[in-house]
Amino acid sequence: MTSDRPWLGPIELEILRSALTAVAAEMDVTVWRTSRSTIVRELLDYSTAVFDRDGYNITQSARIPQHLNSMGFGFRTIVERFLPLDQWRDGDVVISNDPYCGGQHLPDLLAFRPVFSNGERVAVVGTLCHHLDMGGLAAGSYAATATEIFQEGIRIPPLRLYEAGALNEAVLALIKQNVRKPELFWGDLQAQLASLAVGEAKMQGLVARYGVPTIVAACAEILDSSERAMRAMIAAMPDGRYTFEDFIDDDGIEDRPIRIHAAIDIRGDAMTVDLSGSDHQATGPVNATLASSASAVCYSVIACADETVAANAGCYRPIKLLAPEGTVVNARHPAPVAHRMVTSHRLANVLLGALHKAAPDRIPAAYYGVSYTCTFQSIDASGERRVLVEIEIGGGGGHPREDGANAYSLGMHNNANIPVEMIESERHISVLRYGLIPDSGGAGRRRGGLGLFREWRVDCAEALFTASLERFKFRPFGLAGGGAARPGSLTLIRGNDRQALPSKVNNLRLRQGDVIRLETSGGGGFGDPAERPVAEVERDAQLGYVSRQAVERDYLARRRVSA
How many beta carbons lie within 10 A of that of residue 382, not counting itself? Predict the structure, then answer.
């Protein structure tokens, strides 16, 4: 702590840390209560955060890891390359969704508002919402066959939507003209703006109570304390170079696997993550920007901590990232990036696989490792079009101390379930079946969690279906002798016919009565299946998690061999 900072004892610092976290949490609740689309209101695909006056993330709400670890990257890119902070004024709101201006993919819209006190900037508040649609080749802006970002939707460079409190009507009109559901877009954007207003008001209240110097000092010490905690965590791990790799099925355009490779060097209290062994950027839209990949790195390192480390810009300081431009983990413009979560999830799996070698008692086997994104654009007899974006999940990997979670949102996202009733009341889609898939988790001393199945039926004249899925070929891996999980699958059911679909589908035309069935992968197993207690195996069978055939094949037969 520098000598010119006001002194803050541990109690005072914790009070201020909690107060700043409460600001982000109240912003979070504001988005939830005022948003319009199901992807924000029900799926909860949004995040909120508070930044210090220099634009470094201080605290955030408990929402989407992929968003939270990248909002700071996006904000720093905006102020360093486009709109320096000394040009921001009271009442400004700056927005952007451009992946090549610090963002991730076009549906994710960043919005930031500065907080001033007597003309002095003291903080910045920010929100990120996944909007239902931003235009492009496919509804939801998830074109599975895009080969350049220009096909994925409208790109918004960093610009002022509000300038000194005045709305730029022309910018808003331009955006609304290029999205499929402008009323829902504007409703969700207004939720973001309301959240920013709440954040500003709450920060003004803290400044009025504690004063600018104390708030500024608290922010600096919060960052420093997170850095110290992260360095201590890294220092407790053995020095060495730890590598791991896995493969993406394909990019939807070329039928070839895509390598994701990580080499993690730990030296003392610092860590270097080298992703240069990953493949060249893909033709199709599975590429990730550096913001997305850096987010996966930060998430993975924090996830392996044995003590709580507050996620903010301070804890990222000891981590150096090497990711050459032009690779699938740091795509070069104008590569398509709509499905960047394919690479982000797989990168998280790979990084945790490498870190398992340094911390074998803390790292689980691979979770399902993909956002199972399915988009329906239903079209009724009158021509009215409605958009549904579903993001499904799978099973968690077995952990050294417990089984993997069944059908639970893990890793880089933290999405909730869209209630079936909400889907059926607002769209021309019915959900016929929804449940767990037996035998989908990997066998192990700690069993992998189960994936799920979901079936959607088209009830209107026609619909267009787009999907960006993964883990159909390369299954979630086990660790320490555990088995891999069952892969996912996608099926079109038309009458008595069943047609297997690939993992990437773009604007497949459906007709009334058609059914789409998705099966997601489970999580990998951890440890030798022969070591799983018989009582736990029997319990799995009684609950329907594991079939009797799998009990014999994966557990009892192995136990006899090992004996």
Answer: 8
Q: Which residue has the tokens 């799996």?
A: 349
Give the single-character DSSP code of 253: S
HEC sequence for 486-525: CCCEEEEEECCEEEEECCEEEEEEEECCCEEEEECCCCCC
Confidence at residue 563, expressed as pLDDT on a 0 to 100 scale:
67
What is the distance between the alpha carbons of residues 49 and 311, in angstroms, rounded to a whole number? Answer: 11
Cβ-proximal residues to 190 (8 Å cutoff; 6+ apart), any chain = 34
**DSSP string of 3-25?**
TTSPP--HHHHHHHHHHHHHHHH
d(CA 235, CA 240): 11
- Retrieve residue 99's tokens: 């992946």
Check residue 377 and give its pLDDT: 95
451 token code pair: 């994936």
- Residue 70: its pLDDT value, please? 81
Rg (CA), the chain: 24
Spatial distance between the Cα atoms of 56 and 435, rounded to a whole number of angstroms:
42
What is the number of H-type helices and E-type strands within the chain? 12, 20
DSSP at 318: T
By DSSP bridging, strand 319-322 and strand 270-274 are parallel
Nearest CA to 262 out of 251, 248, 250, 276 is that of: 276
Q: To 5 degrees, how large is the angle CA 146–CA 150–CA 154?
A: 115
Taking each helix axis as running N to C, give the angle between helix 340-356 and helix 290-303, from 0 to 180 degrees, rounded to the nearest 10: 30
Which pLDDT does position 1 carry in this prediction?
Answer: 43
Q: How many CA atoms lie within 13 A of 57 on its CB side?
A: 30
Please name the residue that has the structure tokens 């939270």: 68
Half-sphere exposure in the Cβ direction for 342 (13 Å, CA):
33
Q: Identify the segments of the chain with pLDDT beneath 70.
A: 1-4, 68, 563
Alpha helices in 382-457 (DSSP H): 420-426
Say what the pLDDT of residue 3 is.
Answer: 53
Cβ–Cβ under 8 Å, residues 440 and 404: no
> Phi and psi for 390 in degrees, rounded to 5?
-110, 135
- Exposed / middle / buried, residue 430 (Cβ in 10 Å: 0-12, 13-18, 19+): middle
Would you say the pTM of this structure is higher than 0.90? yes
Quote the CA–CA distance of 92 and 27 in Å, as a whole number: 18
| Domain residue extents for the chain | 10-228, 364-563
CB distance 282 to 235 below 8 Å: no
Beta bridge partners of 162: 93, 167
- Amino acid identity, residue 166? A
Amino acid of residue 37: S
Alpha carbon distance 416, 63 (integer Å): 10
Rounded to whole angstroms, how far apart are CA atoms 230 and 266?
13
